[in-house]
Amino acid sequence: MKITILGGKNEIGGNKFLVEYKSTKIFLDFGMSFSQAGKFFSEFLQPRKCSSIPDLIELNLLPDLKGLYRNDYLKHMGRTEEKREFDALLITHAHADHAQYLHFLRNDIPIYCTKPTKIILQALEEIGANTFSDLITTLETFQFRINSKGGLSRVTRTSAEYVKERPFQLVENNKRYKIKDLEIEMLPVDHSLPGACAFIIYSDEGNLVYTGDLRFHGYNSNLTLEFVKKAKAAKPKWLLCEGTRIDQETSVSEAEVKEQISKFIKEAKGLAFVEHPIRDLDRVISVYNATKANKREFVVTLKLAYLIEALQEYCPFKLDDVKILIPKKSWGLICNEGADCKQVEQDYDKWELTYINRKNAITYTELQKNPRKYVVSMNMFEVNQLLDIKPKDAVWIKSSCEPFCDEMELDDERKRNWLAHFKIKEYFAHASGHASGKEIKAMIKEIAPQELIPIHTQKPEMFK
Ligand SMILES: [Zn+2]
Ligand SMILES: [Zn+2]
Question: What tens digit of pLDDT does each residue of 114-129 get?
Fold first, then answer.
């Protein structure tokens, strides 16, 4: 078996591993490297759509391989159409550093992942504002169609014949799937978003275990423990092992985070805001339970409302159990009494319209009337809504990771200016999505692979 690391070595994320065995070629994850992308791109300096593949190859963000990339992009770049060379892509979870560059892949490569992973990818495609998010379907790019006036129009997603579903194979626990000369098995693990898994790749030559991202301190820690047992039983020849926090000894647990959030809410004499990653379902559950423990109601954003509905049985509460905050957008007609419904609707994207007339939809006026009744989910890019809410005696609970680059540092500083302006006190409560170094070392000892390959870490030397 040949394992080629095309991203995710000596860095956290950007995971892209090519596994070749006999005539079989599969990819494990196809993520974006934040550190490498951050060297060349920023919010206002984005890859050029028309030549994104060669540009990203040139900048070492994508591997230079034949038969891997979308023909619609290649044709436009003057490269001839290629034949598919790869048998499958296995995605461990839907974080961008593992799945984002799926956009550039051919739309006939089978994709193996869990159901929640597909749901989140779907959410990213539908509600994420990104030029590069053809994750579930692809829109044939750089095509023209003859419009009703007989002229040329660029093809958009409304022309169904140019939209193609990617071939997804949803993997289930305790089942093996044959991909030509290899067999694969998915093992669910605990991580900071639902649907995360590890994989075992079985071959006549020896087995490979790939951890994906994992931890032992979330609400699904039993899954990771179960994974370790199965990985050990597979007697792996190779272990691709994540080491994000290899240099850290301890972990704060998700249960502790819930307690801390609950305590901070209790201290609030007015509204409580919580800043948290919305795709981290464990955290969403923590905030929801901390809210209930304080006899308040949880108010979610439109995006979180979409996710709660999309995740169905994976989310332990229903959308009717929370309130949905409808923000003022463009013309801000939502709060104008007597405004024409059609006019109000024009302010919102299509996917947002399902929520604005729901019984549990509220606006800032309700938050002003009953501040002690609510806990509001809000991220730093929605903080301008404070101008409508004008909160008094509010608290802001930051429940996400600390900034790890200059850009995030600046965003955080800007947010703190908003909080200072409204005299909002800030608290912090967070647990990482990754196991501690101590836990990783114990896990490796237990699995006992013949060969250990450290990945997703800036300190591979600490694995010695
Ligand atoms: Zn990762
Ligand atoms: Zn992750």
Answer: 999 999 999 999 998 6
CA distances from 287 to 173, 220, 262, 291 (A): 28, 17, 8, 6
| Both structure tokens of 80 | 């001839």
Rounded to whole angstroms, how far apart are CA atoms 191 and 219? 9
In the chain, domain spans: 2-247+435-463, 254-428
Whether the CA torsion 145, 149, 150, 151 is positive or negative: it is negative
CA of 142 from ligand 2 middle (Å) equals 33
CA of 310 relative to ligand 2 center, distance in Å? 20
H or E, element range at 144: strand 144-146
Query: How confident is the model at residue 10, as a pLDDT?
Result: 93
Residue in the structure block whose two tokens are 């560059």: 101
Run of H or E residues at 265? helix 254-267
Q: For residue 8, how far is its CA from the centre of ligand 2 (angstroms)? A: 12
Predicted local confidence at residue 129, as pLDDT: 65
Distance from the alpha carbon of residue 13 to the mean position of ligand 1, in angstroms: 5
Q: Give per-10-residue mean pLDDT for the chain (464 aa).
A: 96 96 98 94 89 93 96 87 96 97 97 98 89 93 90 90 96 96 98 98 97 98 98 98 96 97 97 97 98 98 97 97 95 80 89 94 96 97 95 97 88 96 98 97 98 96 92
Task: Starting from the CA of residue 191, give the closest ligand.
Answer: 2
> What is the assigned CATH class of domain 254-428?
alpha beta
Using CA atoms, how far apart are residues 127 and 310, in angstroms rounded to an integer? 12
pLDDT tens-place string over residues 434-463? 999 999 999 999 999 999 999 999 999 999
Ligand 2 centre and the CA of 180: distance in Å? 28
> What HEC string does 122-161 produce?
HHHHHHCCCCCCCCCEEECCCCEEECCCCCEEECCCCCHH
Compute CA distances 108 → 86, 87, 243, 299, 418, whole Å: 10, 9, 32, 41, 47
- CATH code for residues 2-247+435-463: 3.60.15.10
What's the chain's Rg over C-alpha atoms? 23
Q: Give the DSSP H/E element, type plus range, for residue 241.
A: strand 238-242
